[in-house]
Amino acid sequence: MDLKFLTELNAPAGHEQALRRVLLEELKNYPGVTTSIDRMGNVVAVKTGKGAEPRKRVMLSAHMDEVGLIVTSVTEDGFLRVAPAGGVDPRVIISKRVTVGDDKVPGIIGAMAIHLQSAADRQRVLGYSDIYVDIGAKKKEEAEAKAPKGTYICFDTDYVEFGDGYVSAKALDDRVGIFNLLRVLEDDYDCDVICVFASQEETGCRGSKGAAFALKPDIGIVLEGTTCNDLGDVPETLQVCNTGAGVCVSFMDGSSIANRNLFRHTLEVAEKNGLTHHVKRSVSGGNDGGSMQRARGGIPVVVLSVPCRYIHSPSSVVKYSDVDSQLALTKALLKSI
Amino acid sequence: MFDILKKVLAPVGPSGLEEPVAAAIRAELEGCVDTIETDAMGNLFCIKQGKDPNGKKIMLSAHMDHIGFIVTGYEKEGFLRVTNVGGIGIDVSLTRHVVFPSGVEGVVVCEPVQGAKAMKNLFIDIGAESKEEAEKLVKLGDVAVYANDCFRLGENRVASPAMDDRCACALLVKLMQTIGETKDTVIALFSVQEEVGCRGAKVASFAKEPDVGIALDVTAWGDTPEVKIPAIKLGEGCAVKVMDRASISNPALRDELLACGEAAGVKTQREVLPFGGTDAGAMQTSRGGIPVCTISIPCRYVHSACEVIDMRDMDAALKLLTAYLKK
């Protein structure tokens, strides 16, 4: 199962069915892995360790869901009014192609044409009250039949490999993590490995919260895609991390401060094994690390991220070598526990 | 109590890196309590078993962590770029002396800015002359805090950074040292990561399942020129919280604590804080819910390098809490 296939699946926050079905089927091919599904829709794959008891229980989390839009109403003319499901900047989605609902009805994100805008309009940033999704419906009834309120909308973007080992696709945050969780399960470890393919991270780490409570891990490792900001005009001190520099290890973000011993241990494992890696230089954003850390009586967590440009947009960009780097450090870290 | 206060103010302990504070507290309480434990997040529990097997479990929480500056990058000239851990005020930080856990010292400086200053305009000068030299001294993710500078102010008052919440740590240490036998089990929680959202107290209260939770923390002041809210004065006794943004105190527990203050013959103030929060918020919503209240030490200039408290308010809190636990 490759990254292209995974990013082309639609799994907006709260509606991860398509990816969940594929994962449940795929995980049948993994010997020694027990798979289950919980009531938040998390897929949990457990591989018992080879080490002697008592073994550490290590929970790895990558989130299935991607950011998208959700239909809030339909206009008399048959256009869909929408709200974001997860953090989507309305400035980066205008004129983009989308698919609406499970039947993947084609749509376009529309806004007032430049011809009709006043000078003042052109100075203004368009928000969700200004944009709509056009599915080519003639009138309200036709649109409502195809896209009733609550229907999810996903970006319709091709997976493209380009340049020096770069990949552009939708949903790289966090299909890179999902891709690597599957690859993690190909190896054997001394510790018990509990892979959580989590739901609803983009709307507030809701899936992993229940999973961490139920699974009672000793240690948490989060595989994420993180914002990168390594663009030409951004001063180096304001860049967050860099594509091509390998997996990115976080000391702190908006949702958790890394357990210092685990953070240091992770860097030591990377150095000892000669693995490319770097330290994230910003504390922005949040992820499943926060919900895992504060489950029950508290759990040490560390976050390993793939640097991702234009994250949460229809066309995010990662470097493939960074995806492999996340896998390498995750495996090495698991083997050190 | 001043001696204990000085000892717990001294360690460098930003949010997420509280071990040195825990070590200082542990040294004070070894032998005074039945058990001392830590958890995965670094919370320190010092527990005295109650003599009544049907007694309650009362959790008293004081947070060890201190707001700070976390290193996010380097300038080629050797300056450190930083962002805040917890609520750092920019104006009160300018040209302040800061120190890293490693002992490296620095000064917080702001680049020339037109208009409002932001965290991204700040840097720390550690005396390094190149990026390479700075990288050797300080790693990405290291955290600096306002350097310890504790001094007496007048007859009764003490100024220091980290008074929020080390003064309550000192109070709780003193309480555990002096309380003797109690009917109920007393769990002294020295918590971590309060300043970033009461994260330590959340997991601690889940783990220990207390029947009652009382946070010990500082509160803001309303007794200096042009400051009117909250109606709290230094030297007028400890404050018993009615409400802040994170919790509404359990009314029965609040009134019981006020009555204990009266019985102990100490001054108390009722506190309504229209902002802020304490570990009580995290404890209250743990599991099926826990009755909570906060005993506050009035503190001027909270979240600055000169936080001022009145030792008479510390004594009032000690007497009130002793009366409560001895009931």
Write the layout of secondary structure elements.
The complex is a heterodimer of chains A (337) and B (327).
Chain A: H1 3-8, H2 17-26, E1 33-37, E2 43-47, E3 57-63, E4 68-74, E5 80-85, E6 97-100, E7 105-110, H3 119-123, E8 132-134, H4 140-146, E9 152-155, E10 160-162, E11 166-169, H5 172-184, E12 192-198, H6 206-215, E13 219-227, E14 247-249, H7 260-272, E15 277-279, H8 288-293, E16 301-308, E17 316-319, H9 320-335
Parallel strand pairs in A: 3-12, 3-13, 13-16, 14-15
Antiparallel strand pairs in A: 1-2, 2-12, 4-5, 4-9, 6-7, 6-9, 7-8, 10-11, 11-17, 14-16
Helix pairs in contact in A: 5-9
Chain B: H1 2-9, H2 19-29, E1 35-38, E2 44-48, E3 57-63, E4 68-74, E5 80-85, E6 97-99, E7 105-110, E8 122-125, H3 131-137, E9 143-146, E10 151-153, E11 157-160, H4 163-178, E12 185-191, H5 199-208, E13 212-219, E14 238-243, H6 251-263, E15 268-272, H7 279-284, E16 292-298, E17 307-310, H8 311-326
Parallel strand pairs in B: 3-12, 3-13, 13-16, 14-15
Antiparallel strand pairs in B: 1-2, 2-12, 4-5, 4-9, 5-8, 6-7, 6-9, 7-8, 10-11, 11-17, 14-16
Helix pairs in contact in B: 1-2, 1-4, 4-8, 6-8
